[in-house]
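Escalated from tier 1: zinc ion holo job.
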Amino acid sequence: MENITASELAGFGVAVLLLGATITAPKVDAFISASQRSALGMCKRCGDLKVTACPKCKGTGLIRTQDPFSFNLMEDINQYFGSPQSKANSTPCTKCQARGHFSCPDCSKISKV
Ligand SMILES: [Zn+2]
Ligand SMILES: [Zn+2]
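Tier 2 regenerated the structure:
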């Protein structure tokens, strides 16, 4: 009985350790990568790409508009054949002026100095 209890406790302890490692690992990784970037003189925000992707259009510069009266199948066919009509379903992103990215505010600060 004692052995079973001990192994159960050990298993529980390992499970807690694994669970803790799983939860903390991404945070630690993000922290390290951020500090590594700054240590290398790289921009923390963009990693020296000088631009940050637009969160609204995900870097494409276009917002896909969903037409409730058209089927997705028709949209897929239009895209497959490269029909210009499919472009009508996208509008330029107003957030980034259809550029798909912003110049990194951190880097632009540095470049001005
Ligand atoms: Zn955008
Ligand atoms: Zn930057």
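Residues 43, 45-46, 50, 104, 106-107 surround zinc ion (ligand 2) (CB under 6 Å).
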